[in-house]
Amino acid sequence: MGQKINPLGLRLGTTQSHHSLWFAKPKNYCEGLQEDQKIRNVIKNYVQKNMRISFGVEGIARIEIQKRIDLIQVIIYIGFPKLLLENRPRRIEELQMNVQKELNCVNRKINIAITRIANPYGHPNILAEFIAGQLKNRVSFRKAMKKAIELTEQADTKGIQVQIAGRLDGKEIARAEWIREGRVPLQTIGAKIDYCSYTVRTIYGVLGIKIWIFVDEEK
């Protein structure tokens, strides 16, 4: 049987870089890991609460965290910066206060920066949010998958694979359905592949969405 592995973990050090950059002693490592998770949760919850979300998409592609002794640098890669209203520093200050409150750290400064990404629908996280929004609105899962693939083709990618698993269309028996367009060479380590798994809660139960996007190949 095919042994599945996370495409991002497999490519670390070649085409993929870490989303968190910091060093800790083994006994403090789990604290640092939980800290990262808290930061990401606070940012996502803040974006969900305060933004006028179009198409049900938050638009956060990824959150990178870099830690030093006295500073935590957080970079938010966002597809639709209007959601976070970049021109209003008040929003970012409020977000920094929320993170500081959650972490309860006195002697470390938190700095949050926002970076806009060029093709939002070329990123699996944003695409998964789009599909999740469609499924919550009871759109047929096949229609949602095809629409997602159309959006990705506009973003100039070389291939995409989408898989949705669970009680699709409210059927009694759970199953997994997938669709692929273009090439997705998962075994080629030189291929830059973006991946994400996303959970969506519908009225029928929990559905899982997995998306692989073949961005580019290293020469």
TrEMBL record:
Q: Where is the signal peptide, in residue numbers?
A: none
Q: Which Pfam families match?
A: Ribosomal_S3_C
- Any idea which UniProt keywords this protein has? Chloroplast, Plastid, Ribonucleoprotein, Ribosomal protein, RNA-binding, rRNA-binding
Question: Where is the KH type-2 domain positioned along the sequence?
Answer: 47-118
Q: Which GO terms describe its molecular function?
A: rRNA binding; structural constituent of ribosome
| Superkingdom, taxonomy of origin | Eukaryota
GO cellular component assignments: chloroplast; cytosolic small ribosomal subunit
Asked if the keyword Ribonucleoprotein belongs to this entry, the reply reads: yes
Swiss-Prot/TrEMBL GO biological process terms? translation
Protein location? Plastid, Chloroplast
Q: List the SUPFAM superfamilies.
A: Prokaryotic type KH domain (KH-domain type II), Ribosomal protein S3 C-terminal domain
InterPro entries in alphabetical order: KH_dom-like_a/b, KH_dom_type_2, KH_sf_prok-type, Ribosomal_S3_C_sf, Ribosomal_uS3, Ribosomal_uS3_bac-typ, Ribosomal_uS3_C, Ribosomal_uS3_CS
Q: How does it assemble?
A: Part of the 30S ribosomal subunit.
Q: Which family does it belong to?
A: Belongs to the universal ribosomal protein uS3 family.
Name by which UniProt lists this protein = Small ribosomal subunit protein uS3c
Organism of origin is Zanthoxylum piperitum
